[in-house]
Design a protein that fits this description.
The complex is a heterodimer of chains A (about 325) and B (about 325).
Chain A lengths: L14 H29 L3 H5 L12 H7 E5 L2 H6 L5 H9 L2 E6 L2 H32 L5 H10 L5 H15 L5 H25 L3 H9 L4 H12 L1 H17 L2 H6 L7 H4 L4 E2 L2 E2 L1 H21 L1 H8 L7
Antiparallel strand pairs in A: 1-2, 3-4
Helix pairs in contact in A: 1-15, 3-15, 6-9, 6-12, 7-9, 9-12, 10-11, 12-16
Chain B lengths: L3 E10 L2 E11 L4 E5 L6 H9 L6 E6 L2 E2 L10 E4 L11 H6 L11 H14 L15 H13 L5 E5 L7 H18 L3 E5 L2 H7 L2 E6 L2 E6 L1 H6 L4 H6 L6 E4 L12 E4 L4 E5 L5 E10 L4 E7 L2 E7 L10 E6 L3 E3 L5 E2 L2
Parallel strand pairs in B: 3-8, 3-9, 6-7, 7-8
Antiparallel strand pairs in B: 1-2, 1-4, 4-5, 9-10, 11-12, 12-18, 13-17, 14-15, 14-17, 15-16, 18-19
The chains are: A mainly alpha (about 325), B alpha+beta (about 325).
Bound molecules: adenosine-5'-triphosphate (ATP) and magnesium ion.
Magnesium ion binds next to helix 1 of chain B.
């Protein structure tokens, strides 16, 4: 006779399995977190500590990296610096200790703002277009539906570099090179294919009876879409938005090729921050650390939808 | 409320002929039930009236107006769906108010509130109005689904097996309530079901549909006592009618191939002085009555018996036929 105490549920993992799985997840998390932690530590090191060998784990924290990230400085003679009044704030003081004065703000803030505008703008556009097309593909009899869907997905299969040159030439002709609008359109067109595919799956799962009931009750199809379909697709929309945002936020290859000044985003700007005699690593690390913040905030805000969204509806209530 | 006419409507989905040449008139204030097995085309009929599908042939008139080409919103019908009837992201109140809040309707919010509360009281869900639609029992959900339709006063209520997901007891209760409400409101209802009890008890007329064709339409009594063919006869009656070869019994009229014998057409007696003799195979005790499973010349026959009669497996009994129904070789009724 099997006793009830030794019998275990088929669906619930046992305590040992759970502990083992838990340790694996934690180990993996540690491995992936190390580079991030190292970057954050580097952001608070002085330039000498940053490049010292063997690498320093214990060091005296300094905000010089952040100062160098936000300012440009010029070298002056000690006599000139002494002739100036008292230092204007902490960054000026750090600069003067290295025989420099703050000359003005750096380009980090405008580049960061470009990144925000381009990434969020293209995400909003891609998700909006993606939701509408996914709804169309899900609900209507579209001629050549399967071929069209495959074509849409196939645009994702090319490496960016394969299309970068033609796009560069086209953008130059129509005056979109180095403009935010150009980058928004470009990222939208890359992301919209992903958005259509992800969202079609989510919308397919919403029973059509919901809209049909609304249409019988006196709503137009569009009103039914807004009142009934959208609220039930929020999980899918949130997950799709995060995927699109992460792509647009991190995108490097197109940004390097197509932007140089006005519309340059943060990714091509951060690695080339130059300090005294080469790369200014603390400033690069500080720029990277701050660059992570918006994605983290956005993900935390939408995390409620994410678990369900990223498992593509597999986790159900 | 209004009269609804369906005039020789046909509808095919690819190679499936879901409905063939369906004609049906639902009078003002009438409760018509469409009864048929799964896949018969019942839901399709409702969807055509609502405008969710376009007929291949035929037309639909509401209150004398041809609405065949009209959008669902312009037809003034209310629909209770077979499943997925409530919006999970809305509360019970919002679900019930949904139709009244349609932008084209412009009902003042105070009137909406009053109407929803009135209907909620009618359906005994007035204490649940603030619940999320997902925080209800099955019976409550079904009441809300019906309430969603009842807040409106459309030309016709189309109900697609609204009680099918409930247990027998709740179904019995809601059946009575729904009938009472229909009478109180004087509502016109086309009610789809595969449950003969629902059709018999609620409908003023029953349409029996099978394989996309309307076999017969009439009052429950007509359908039960005078079925046009063996299909219709088999739809009604508990236990189901016994269809036996006419040759087994004497006295069938010319052309009759099959005899249809319901419980009330069969008299059972012990001994062997009836029309034919039979053997008892099994007795199912249901409490107040028993189902008697008989073997008549190798054919199974099920009939009702008084539990007091004390029949047991192996008993030999005799059967006497008492004005049964006769059907020809293709299942159509032959006059006795
Ligand atoms: N959208 C559709 N596409 C293809 N075939 C369909 C569609 N809707 C219905 N059918 C077919 O039409 C026939 C009638 O379907 P319908 O839904 O009207 O049956 P029903 O009588 O409501 O059955 P049930 O009691 O199971 O709900 C079935 O054979 C069904 O497979
Ligand atoms: Mg159906």
């Amino acid at each position: 006779m099997t006793s009830a105490t030794t019998a275990h549920s088929v669906v619930e993992p046992s305590a040992t399995t759970r502990r083992f799985a838990g340790s694996l997840v934690i180990l993996y998390a540690i491995i992936t977190m190390i580079p991030l932690v190292w970057i954050m530590l580097t952001a608070f090191k002085s330039p000498d500590d940053a490049i010292s060998y063997p690498p320093k784990v214990m060091f005296k924290p300094s905000l010089e990296g952040f100062c160098n990230l936000f300012t440009t400085r010029s070298r002056q003679t000690p006599e000139f610096i002494r002739s100036l009044g008292p230092p204007q704030g902490m960054c000026d003081e750090i600069a003067r200790s290295r025989n420099m004065v703050v000359a003005g703000p750096s380009n980090y803030v405008p580049r960061f703002i470009n990144s925000l505008i381009i990434a969020f703008g293209s995400t909003v556009l891609a998700v909006a277009l993606g939701t509408l097309s996914a709804y169309g593909f899900s609900r209507f009899r579209v001629p050549l539906k399967d071929d069209l869907l495959f074509f849409i997905l196939s645009t994702r299969m090319m490496p960016p570099i394969a299309v970068a040159i033609p796009i560069y030439l086209m953008y130059r002709t129509v005056g979109l090179s180095d403009t935010r609008l150009g980058m928004i359109l470009l990222y939208t067109s890359v992301n919209v294919s992903l958005a259509v595919w992800l969202l079609k799956g989510f919308i397919d799962e919403i029973p059509r009876e919901y809209e049909e009931a609304a249409m019988i009750d006196g709503y137009t199809r569009f009103q039914a879409f807004v009142k009934v379909v959208l609220p039930q697709a929020t999980t899918g929309i949130a997950a799709t938005a995060i995927f699109c945002l992460i792509f647009a936020w991190n995108e490097y290859a197109f940004a390097v090729l197509l932007t140089s000044g006005n519309a340059q985003t943060a990714p091509p700007f951060i690695p080339i921050i130059i300090g005294e005699g080469g790369q200014d690593w603390p400033a690069v690390a500080a720029g990277t650390t701050l660059f992570l913040v918006p994605i983290v905030v956005f993900t935390v805000l939408l995390r409620k939808h994410l678990l369900r969204g990223i498992t593509f509806g597999a986790v159900r209530k | 409320m209004a009269e609804v006419e369906i005039v020789s409507v046909s509808k095919a989905f690819g190679r499936t002929q879901a409905l063939s040449d369906l004609s049906l008139t639902i009078g003002n204030g009438e409760f018509v039930a469409l009864l048929g097995p799964t896949g018969a085309g019942k839901t399709t009929a409702l969807r055509l009236i609502a405008g969710l599908e376009q007929p291949d042939k035929g037309s639909i008139r509401i209150d004398g107006r041809d609405v065949t080409g009209d959008a669902p919103a312009d037809r003034d019908v209310a629909f209770v769906f077979q499943q997925y009837s409530l919006y999970p992201h809305l509360t019970v109140f919002e679900n019930m108010a949904f139709a009244l809040r349609a932008p084209t309707r412009r009902v003042p919010e105070a009137d909406i509130r009053a109407k929803v509360q009135e209907i909620a009281r009618l359906l005994h869900i007035e204490t649940k109005l603030d619940n999320k639609a997902t925080q209800l029992s099955g019976g409550q959900m079904q009441r809300v689904a019906i309430g969603r339709a009842l807040v409106r006063s459309p030309s016709i209520y189309l109900m697609d097996e609204p009680l099918s997901s409930l247990d027998a007891k709740l179904r019995g209760e809601l059946r009575l309530e729904l009938k009472r409400i229909q009478v109180d409101l004087g509502a016109t209802i086309l009610y789809v079901t595969h449950d003969q009890t629902e059709a018999m008890t609620m409908a003023s007329r029953i349409g029996v549909i099978e394989g996309g064709r309307l076999m017969q339409i009439g009052t429950p009594r007509e359908i039960y006592e005078n079925p046009v063919n063996a299909h219709v006869a088999a739809r009604l009656g508990q236990p189901a009618i016994n269809l036996l070869p006419a040759a087994l019994f004497g006295g069938a009229p010319a052309g009759a191939e099959t005899i249809g014998a319901r419980t009330e057409h069969l008299t059972i007696a012990r001994g062997a002085d009836g029309d034919v003799s039979a053997t008892v195979k099994r007795v199912e005790h249901l409490g107040d009555q028993s189902h008697l499973h008989l073997d008549v010349g190798g054919r199974p026959v099920v009939t009702l018996a008084d539990p007091e009669a004390g029949f047991g497996a192996g008993d030999v009994v005799s059967l006497r036929l008492n004005k049964p129904l006769f059907f020809d070789a293709r299942g159509w009724r032959v006059a006795a």
